Amino acid sequence: MIMLILNPSIIVTMNRTMQIIKDGYLGIEEGAIVYLSDKKPSDCEDIIRLPGRVILPGFINTHTHVAMTLLRGLKDDVDLQTWLMKYILPVEKQLKPTDVYYGALHGIAEMIKSGTTTFMDMYYHEIEVAKAAADARIRAMLTYGSADVFFNVTPEEEFKKAKKFRDELQELISSRGLEDFLYFAYGPHSPYGCTKELLLLIREAANRDGSRIHIHLSETQSEVDESLKIRKMTPIEYLDSIGFLKNDVMAAHVVWPTDKDIDILCRRGTHVLHNPTSNLKLASGIAPIPKLLEKNVNVALATDGPASNNRLDMWKEITLAALIHKGFLRDPEAIPAETALKMATINGALALGLENRLGSLEIGKFADFIIINIKDALESTPFHDIYSMLVYALDSRYIESVWIHGDELYKKKGGFKTIDIDRTREKVEEIRNRLLTEAGVK
Hints:
This protein is of the alpha/beta class. The chain has helices spanning 80-92, 97-113, 126-136, 148-151, 155-176, 196-209, 221-231, 235-241, 259-268, 276-281, 289-294, 314-329, 337-344, 346-351, 386-393, 421-439; strands at residues 4-12, 20-22, 25-29, 32-37, 47-57, 59-64, 116-123, 139-146, 182-188, 212-217, 249-253, 271-274, 299-301, 369-373, 399-404, 407-411, 415-416. Helix 2 packs across helix 3 and helix 5 runs parallel beside helix 6.
């Protein structure tokens, strides 16, 4: 058997037993993990020794709009409506497909560098995001943001766009052999951005073809208040009343669920995608994550888009998720470090329906992982608990390399294997200048 063997000081598996392997051996062959043990394989002498290093599963960013790197810092510290209506939407109207490609590629580089190996996206010209992901060789679940209410079109017209994107994505996957890298999901924007008719068209299609559904849900207090005013139901109650919520639904934000809403999410097996930084920055609030976890709702982590975060660094989200709920609830046990790390790895894989392929280091799963240099980290001394160290003491600065499908795509001392980052940054700056001129935004 020909395989690459890595021998780090610590392997953090994130498997069901949360196994930690000291001085372990990780074997890779054809993009998958084929060996994992604390014993040296007998049939392999070519071993890469990694003293003072930790291997950890790659992070899974379950909700973002990655091409919005183009709008990062366009306008901050204003209320959501001013931010969206006066700045973001006028500029987005000027976006061309190639703009989205380069904005996405730049954001993907940022994600890879900070440890993300899989992401889920929702945006316009989404096939361009797919092309960027394909070129970068990162894994992605991709959704076109359907919103017949916003775009003032019929439900049927808007649903055709989602089907067109699905067909284009499948063609890209087939032509480039990307079945293990790119995945499709439906992306109705929200209960207020979609008519009931569109939501039902998507629900019926997902039932037929087995695709998952990615939606914004109960993000703000005003969204919930408006739903109660119009329908006498919360957004979650409304979706449940039309048979929309199932265990294939991935709901972003869920900042304002009632206790009844949480029971519904638990009963339906719906997944929650927690965006702590974005929720704070846009003053949406603090999601009741401990309550959701107590009810056995699967909660995964995400950054949201880089215009409302303003970073795509999942390690930052892990640390914040572990801290914010402690302070808000005045309970130091609210979200333990180990739980926060699960939300960024195996819980993310479960949300995407890819738990048999991603999210933990186990034989048979894809070889997607990051190598962390704790030898050079002053914060790693003294060593007591690996989860505590990773979540509270370290950050993405200590990522030495990032591997996807057994391929070292980023090396701190060597840069990116698949992305020309200098050209990408130049293109993003050119696009930014043109967009602001065309939109008349100052």
